[in-house]
Structure formats: C-alpha cells, structure tokens
C-alpha cells in the first residue's frame, strides 16, 4: 500500500521530468565535456586509465591563456560582434520599409514580390558561395570583413522581412487611418505609429539576424584568408589545429567563450526566439 | 496572404465616406510608385546578392573559369560531362540523400516524444525549453569541435562510456571508418536539429484545441486513434512547412560535414556543399564547383513547388 502511494507521488511530482531527462542529458553533455576539457591539464586530458569525467589534477587556465595570448581570438570575437551589429542595422534598414510596403501598400506585383521574398530565403548559401566569391572579388572586398558585412544580409533580409510583415499586419488599420486624417504622411505614420507598435517584432528580427550572422561559416571560410580578418567560427576551427596537432584544451575554451555572446542574447530573448522560430511555419 | 491594401482608405473612397476623398496628399496618391520606392532598396540588394550570383553560377558551370585566372571561355557541357563520369560525384549525390533522409527521420522520431513531454504545464518548463534549444542556437562550428573531440580516434569519451558499459569491445573509429563516419555526421546533425523539430511539433500540438481532444476522448477514441484522426490532420500543415525548411537546410548543409570529416574518409561523407567546396575553391575549378552546386537546384525547385501548392491549398 505504502509502496503504491510512494510511486503515485513520484509520478505526480516528477512525472513530467522523467521523459525529459534523457533529452537534457544528450543536449548538455557536449557542453559539460567542453568545460571539463577546457580546464583540464594536458596530462590529465590524455590519461586513458581512469574515468575522464572529473579533474584528477587541479584545473588549469593554461588553455585559456594560450587561446587569448597565442592566437588572435580577441580579434575574431571583435570581428564577429562588429559584423553582427552592422548586419543587424543593414538588415533592419532594408527590411522595415519593404515589410511595411509589402504588407500594407497596394501596387502591381506586391503579391509575387512577397512570394519572391519568401522563396529567396530558401536559396541556400551552398548554392551561392562560389559565384559570390567572384562578386566579392570584383567589388574589391576579398579577404576583408567588409565582404561579410555586405554579403550576410542576403540570408538575414528575406527571413526578417517575412517576419516583420507578419508583425505589421497585426497593427489595426484604423490607427493609421486616423493618422492620415490628422494629416500625417505615410512615412510619418510609419515612423511614429507602426515602428513603435512593432518593437517586439523588430527585436525578434534583430536577434535572428545577429544569431544567423554569428553562426555563419561557409562564406567566412570562402572569402577570408588572413587570420586577423577571421570570424569566431572560422578562427577557432582553423588556427588551433596545426597540422595533425589539435590543441583540444584551447579549442574547447575557444568554443565556450565564443558561444557566450549568442548564449546571452538568447537567454534574454527566449520568448522572442521561440516566436520567431515558429512564425515561419505558422504565418 | 491578407488582402491588406484592398480596404485601404482612399483606394475605394466611395466605401469610406467619412474620409475626405483623396486628391493631392491622400495616401493612395501614386501608391504604386511609392510602394516600389519602399521596397526598392531590399529588392535591389537581393537582386545583386542572390539573383545575380545565381545566374553567374549557371554561366560559370559552362565556362572554364578558375580561381585566379580571369580569362575564362565557354566550354559548353564539358563540366557536366566530366561530372557525370566522376564516381565521387555520384557518391556525393547518394550521400546527400542518406544524410538528409537519415537526419530528418531521426529528428522527427526523437522530436515527437519531446514535443509531447513539453506539451503540458510543469514547474520550470521555460527553463527546460530554453536548455533544449541550446544546440540549435550555439554556432555549429563551435559545437562541432566538441563532437570532433568526443569522436576522437584515441580519446573518445563516447568510446570510453560504451566500452565500460560493455556495449562495444574495441574503440570505434567514429570519423575514420567508412560507413560509421556518415552515422557520426548524422548523429551530430540530429543533436543540433531535434530541438527545432520539437519546437515546430510543439507549436503544432498547441494549435490543437483541447476541447476537440476531449470530445474524441468522450467518443471513446484511445490515444493512438486520437493522435491519428484528430491531432495529425490539424498539425499537418504546420509540420509540413517546418519539415520542408528543415529538409532544405539538411540537404544544403556544409559546415557540420566539413568540420567533422571534410567529406572523408574515402569521400564517404561528401555532400554537395563539401564536394563543391573541394573542387571549386580548394582545387580552384570554379566551373566544376558551380556545376556541382547547381544540382541542388532541381531538388530545391521541387520542394518549393510542393510548398507553394500546399500553402495555396490550405
């Protein structure tokens, strides 16, 4: 009897968590492994005798030091953040008016153009990196961070425009109508009514543009060769591997520190993020 | 798509008598021109950075263009005939399908129970959801390093666990053995993608009204039949669009394969992206590289047609 009650209580209190625990383990283990590796001494790291899950010798900061002093890691981090911010600005400047016009204005071709915007999101960078390397070369931007700043909006712009169109549609038309009666121009109404109302949408779009940019790899790999111009994703994965030697401790510390900016942005905007993820499928 | 503009003030002034009929200064005034001006920057940008390179790659694929040699000439179908005669290319095609179908199926199978587990309220749900999505948010280049280390030939922690659990009796070469390497790439891709699948599935599940489920329950439908006859039809459109996105991204993936195996061992994990990179950029044969990437296009077009048809019908 008591056992029966015991199991019922277990089920009531922990029921929802039981099926989730294997998922949490699988999701988190690689990150746990990164942390352990980043701070283990080499002798400890390459010791096959004992269980590897905890420190056998005191943790060390040597790997982090090598990363910060022996590589251009701070420069890569700076490059990635700068590119991210610039791309967010460019994306929003182009996407906001386009999203407003496609959602609200009536002009010939508005419908097919909205579809084109949606479809251009499906054109992957894998299809474009070879010709784009020629375009970038032609513009004189090859092997420069500016190559990435001008190319990255090509994948953030379609998605963000699409997302913002959905937000513009949620603004009641009556508000704009009354603004018109009050003598506002269209641009004034857009700036003073639409923009303030869709701030959550702008934040969501900005977050997406930033994370997509920060994650990008193939364009950076193709356009950049000088170490000082690399982004975090490219720099960490290329400069800490010398021939056959992998500096695992430093690689893991680079991966960890490099992940912090996205993790922070993400932690503060979880709801926006989930909304954005599902919006593509739901709208 | 809403018929947004149709009710716009001034467009049909007769139907909105309270507003002064727009003459000069009304918003409908030259709205066509204005609309084009508003969208022009975005579309000019996309024309230059998506449409133009796309057509350029078609040209490159029938030219002798190489990295660093500006004088290229038309060579007809030569790049394509060379490609068709290349066994590695056919291997790449097969790998791309195995990789895509394998990753997508496993993601769904793993994502569905997770979506159900998340589709109820419990303490700390937000936190759990936040943690589950982490693999999807962290740049794949960075998390792939952790996987490369976990799949290491000598110090693989996965081997350590499996050997001590007596599941395997010698250390597996996760990234070095043909056959197994593809599985390793798929495993990492599933790890990174199942949170997305689960979130999309969850969005679908929450779209099912609870009353409908209750009604089915009262009518005596068991969990399986409720799922099949009630949940699936409501959830299908959302899932399909999510799935198609996901398929496109798997099919055109580059980074996860490149960072784990660079297409090896013996080309057994090459997908379109990695093989095109090897030929087009590393070997400098832009024409061949462009031809390889263009093979993605028919597949993409099929998906897009399917998607548009479906969206129109719904």
Mind explaining what this structure looks like?
The complex is a heterodimer of chains A (283) and B (314). In chain A, strands 1-2 form a two-stranded antiparallel sheet. The longest helix of chain A is centred in the N-terminal third of the chain and has 32 residues. Chain A is mainly alpha-helical. Chain A has 16 helices and two strands. Chain A has a domain of 191 residues: MetI-like (MetI-like fold, Orthogonal Bundle). Chain B has one domain: MetI-like fold (Orthogonal Bundle). Chain B is 67% helix and 0% strand. Chain B has 14 helices and no strands. In chain B, helix 1 packs across helix 13, helix 3 packs parallel to helix 8 and helix 10 packs antiparallel against helix 14. The longest helix of chain B has 32 residues. Chain B starts with 30 loop residues before the first helix and ends with a helix. Chains A and B meet through helix 2, helix 5, helix 6, helix 7 and helix 9 of A and helix 1, helix 3, helix 4, helix 5 and helix 6 of B.
Topology readout:
The complex is a heterodimer of chains A (283) and B (314).
Chain A: H1 2-14, H2 21-39, H3 42-45, H4 62-70, H5 73-104, H6 110-120, H7 125-138, H8 145-151, H9 153-169, H10 173-181, H11 186-197, H12 199-215, H13 218-223, H14 232-239, E1 241-242, E2 245-246, H15 248-267, H16 270-282
Antiparallel strand pairs in A: 1-2
Helix pairs in contact in A: 2-15, 4-15, 5-8, 5-9, 5-12, 5-14, 6-9, 9-12, 10-11, 12-16, 14-15
Chain B: H1 31-61, H2 78-84, H3 87-118, H4 125-132, H5 134-137, H6 140-150, H7 157-164, H8 180-206, H9 210-218, H10 223-251, H11 255-260, H12 272-282, H13 286-294, H14 296-313
Helix pairs in contact in B: 1-13, 2-13, 3-8, 3-10, 8-10, 9-10, 10-14, 12-13
């Amino acid at each position: 009897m008591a056992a029966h009650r015991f199991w019922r209580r277990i089920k009531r209190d922990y029921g929802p968590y039981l099926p989730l625990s294997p998922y949490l383990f699988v999701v988190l283990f690689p990150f746990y492994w990164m942390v352990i590796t980043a701070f283990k001494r080499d002798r400890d790291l390459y010791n096959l005798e004992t269980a590897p899950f905890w420190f056998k010798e005191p943790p060390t900061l040597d790997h982090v030091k090598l990363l910060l002093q022996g590589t251009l890691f701070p420069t890569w981090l700076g490059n990635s953040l700068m590119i991210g911010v610039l791309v967010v600005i460019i994306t929003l400047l182009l996407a906001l008016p386009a999203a407003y016009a496609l959602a609200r204005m009536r002009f010939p071709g508005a419908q097919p153009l909205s579809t084109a915007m949606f479809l251009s999101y499906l054109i992957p960078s894998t299809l474009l990196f070879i010709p784009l390397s020629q375009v970038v070369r032609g513009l004189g931007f090859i092997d420069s961070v500016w190559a990435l700043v001008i190319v990255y909006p090509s994948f953030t712009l379609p998605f963000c425009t699409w997302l913002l169109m959905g937000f513009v549609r949620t603004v009641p038309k009556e508000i704009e109508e009354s603004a018109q009666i009050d003598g506002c121009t269209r641009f004034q109404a857009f700036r003073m009514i639409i923009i303030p109302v869709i701030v959550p949408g702008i934040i969501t779009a900005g977050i997406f543009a930033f994370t997509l940019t920060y994650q990008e790899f193939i364009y950076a790999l193709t356009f950049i060769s000088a170490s000082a111009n690399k982004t975090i994703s490219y720099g960490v994965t290329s400069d800490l591997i010398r021939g056959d030697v992998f500096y695992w401790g430093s690689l893991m510390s680079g991966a960890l520190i490099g992940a912090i900016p996205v993790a922070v942005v993400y932690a503060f905007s979880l709801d926006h993020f989930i909304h954005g993820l599902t919006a593509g499928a739901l709208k | 798509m809403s018929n947004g503009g149709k009710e716009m003030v001034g467009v049909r002034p007769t139907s909105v008598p309270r507003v002064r009929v727009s003459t000069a200064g009304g918003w409908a005034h030259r709205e066509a021109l204005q609309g084009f001006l508003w969208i022009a920057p975005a579309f000019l940008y996309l024309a230059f950075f998506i449409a133009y390179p796309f057509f350029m790659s078609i040209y490159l694929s029938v030219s002798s263009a190489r990295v660093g040699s500006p004088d290229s000439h038309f060579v007809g179908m030569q790049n394509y005939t060379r490609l068709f005669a290349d066994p590695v290319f056919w291997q790449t095609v097969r790998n791309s399908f195995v990789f895509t179908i394998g990753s997508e199926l496993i993601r769904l199978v793993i994502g569905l129970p997770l979506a159900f587990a998340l589709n109820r309220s419990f303490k700390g749900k937000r936190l759990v959801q936040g943690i589950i999505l982490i693999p999807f948010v962290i740049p794949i280049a960075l998390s792939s390093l952790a996987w490369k280390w976990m799949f290491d030939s000598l110090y693989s922690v996965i081997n350590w666990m499996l050997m001590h659990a007596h599941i395997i009796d010698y250390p597996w070469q996760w990234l070095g053995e043909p056959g197994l390497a593809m599985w390793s790439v798929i495993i990492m891709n599933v790890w990174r993608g199942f949170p997305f699948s689960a979130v999309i599935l969850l969005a679908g599940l929450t779209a099912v009204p609870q009353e409908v489920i209750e009604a089915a329950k009262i009518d005596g439908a068991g969990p399986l039949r409720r799922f099949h006859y009630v949940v699936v039809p409501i959830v299908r459109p959302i899932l399909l669009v999510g799935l198609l996105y996901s398929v496109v991204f798997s099919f055109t993936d580059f980074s996860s394969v490149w960072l784990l195996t660079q297409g090896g061992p013996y080309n057994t994990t090459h997908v379109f992206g990695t093989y095109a990179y090897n030929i087009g950029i590393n070997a400098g044969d832009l024409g061949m590289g462009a031809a390889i990437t263009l093979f993605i296009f028919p597949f993409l077009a099929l998906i897009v047609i399917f998607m548009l048809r479906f969206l129109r019908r719904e």
